[in-house]
Amino acid sequence: MAGFDLLSDQGLRLDGRRTNELRKIQCKLGVFSQPDGSSYLEQGNTKVLAAVYGPHEIRGSRTKCLLDQVLVNCQYSMATFSTGERKRRPRGDRKSQEMSSHLRQTFEAAIKTELYPRSQIDIFVEVLQADGGNYSACVNAATLALIDAGIPLHEYVTSCTTVLAPPPAVASWDEEKREEGEVPLVDASHREETSGSPTITVAALAESGRLVLCQVGQRLHLDRMNRALQNALQGCKDVRDVLDAAVRDHVALGGIGEAASS
Questions:
Q1: C-alpha span between 10 and 190 (Å, rounded)
Q2: Are 19 and 34 in contact (CB under 8 A)?
Q3: Are 40 and 49 in contact (CB under 8 A)?
C-alpha cells in the first residue's frame, strides 16, 4: 500500500475492514444514575458518553418556551485529552456550537416533541476519544441515552459517515468496479476522513430511511453523491441493528446495561 492510498491491492482498508464494513461498535445503557438516561458508546477508537435530562420545566428565559412541543437542548463537547493535541476549549468554541446545532436538528426530528409541550429535554454528549465519525458516534450514543430515559422516538435515529476513495491502481482490481469510479467506504475513520477524499455524513430514521441531516465535506457531483448517500444510509441501518441488540439486552436484564458488539 503506497502513500495515502485508502485501499490495498486486495480492496481492504487501512484497518483491514471491507469497504462496506462498520467499525466494531460496543455500547452500554444506564452508565450513570444521576441523569434520566445515559449511555457509553465505542465506535472503533471513537468513544462517547451521552446523558439525557428531562422532560422538565423550561430553565432560564420563558421566551424559549414552545407552546405545542418540547424544547430540545443539545450540548456537544470534547474532552481536553480526546485528541493527540490537547484542546484548550473543550466546549463553547465554534466547532462545538456547530455540532450542538446539528444534534439539536437531528433529535428534533426523531423525538415525539408534541408529547411534551412547554417543557425541555437536555442532551449532553462528550467525546472522550476522537478517531473519526465524531458526530455519528454522538448521535448513536444520544439515541441510546434517550431510549434509556424512556423518551418516545419516532424511530431509531442513527448516523454514519462515508468517504469516496479512489480505487487501487493495480491491474488486478475489478475493471467493472474501476469503471464505477471512486469506492464508498462506510463508517470512516479519522485517517480516511482527513485523506482529502470527498466525505458525506448523514443522520437518518434508519427503518424508514428518512434523512434528517446530510452534510457533504467537499464539493461532490450529484451522480457521485447518490452512490455515497446510499452507502451511508445502509451504514445507518447496520448501526441501528447493533443499537437495537443493545437495547434488547438492556431490557432483558432488567435495566442493567450490557455491552453489544457488531
A1: 21
A2: no
A3: yes
